[in-house]
Design brief:
Elements lengths: L2 E9 L9 E10 L2 E10 L7 H17 L1 H6 L6 H26 L7 E7 L2 E7 L3 E5 L3 E3 L6 H7 L5 H4 L21 E6 L5 E5 L1 H4 L4 H10 L8 H7 L10 E9 L4
Length: 258
């Protein structure tokens, strides 16, 4: 039997007073299709109302799951360009809502988003900011690109990767939801393979963990114990050192087409 296993965890970390992260996990058979939607939104701690913007993102995509996506999945044949257009349109809509909220309240607002949408054996990724999506197949691979000023400098060849890790502005975002009128959306799509693992997480997770250890933890975990694997990974962060909110979703696809 083809299955999907999901585990998620979110907390305020060891220092922050508030958890400004939000996450969303949806999975169902709709029409003839199997679909899953997984989102981590990291409200920007340096801006006001980060928690409200991250919640706005997950609430918006929860409605998207129940309406637009549900209607699309009633069709037997689904065009990839239609899915891509719907995702981008929804992100623009939520960004406009968040931007206008900031303008009306006179506050600077923002949130990252890492989104993984799966329809049958195809995945669609959207990323804004510095939350990330990793895939574990034969090895672990980051599927997203960080949208930070330092990461942009590395891509332009102005900074070496080893310098970026210690740069004083390494956490400064060059793009996020709510802070800019026009979005720069990172997108990629591909095929789900049998026994693929995907990790959707905020920087408060990946900054404190060795991803090779994460790979070993996930690969050792059996299906019946998978529900607790997100908490197990959170526990791997040394006590007292999590200086940011910590949010992670782990997904395992067992068998082709799940």
């Amino acid at each position: 039997m083809k299955k999907i296993f999901i585990s998620a965890h979110s907390d305020k970390g060891d220092v922050r007073q508030e958890n400004q992260d939000s996450f969303l996990c949806k999975c169902a058979k709709i029409g003839t299709h199997k679909a899953g939607l997984f989102i981590v939104a990291d409200g920007c701690g340096g801006l006001s109302d980060g928690a409200q913007i991250s919640s706005m993102i997950t609430a918006g995509f929860s409605r998207f799951w129940n309406t637009d996506l549900n209607e699309l999945l009633q069709h037997r044949h689904i065009a990839k360009n239609e899915v891509n257009a719907m995702l981008d349109s929804k992100l623009e809509e939520i960004n406009k809502e968040a931007y206008e909220f900031g303008a009306q309240t006179g506050s600077r607002v923002g949130s990252t988003i890492s989104l993984l949408l799966v329809i049958d054996d195809v995945f669609y990724i959207r990323n804004i900011g510095d939350s990330r999506i990793y895939r574990i197949r034969h090895r672990i691979k980051q599927l997203t690109e960080d949208q930070t000023f330092v990461a942009d400098m590395v891509r332009r060849g102005e900074l070496r990767p080893e310098e970026a890790a210690f740069h004083k502005k390494r956490n400064l975002l060059s793009m996020c939801i709510g802070a800019f009128r026009k979005l720069r959306i990172y997108s990629v799509s591909g095929r789900i393979w049998r026994n693929d693992h995907y990790i959707i997480c905020c920087d408060g997770f990946y900054n404190y963990l060795n991803m090779k250890k994460i790979r070993r933890t996930l690969c050792r975990c059996k299906g019946k114990n998978f529900d607790g694997v997100a908490r197990d990974m959170r526990a791997m962060i040394e006590e007292g050192t999590a200086r940011d909110n910590v949010t992670v979703i782990a997904v395992r696809f067992k068998g082709s087409y799940w």
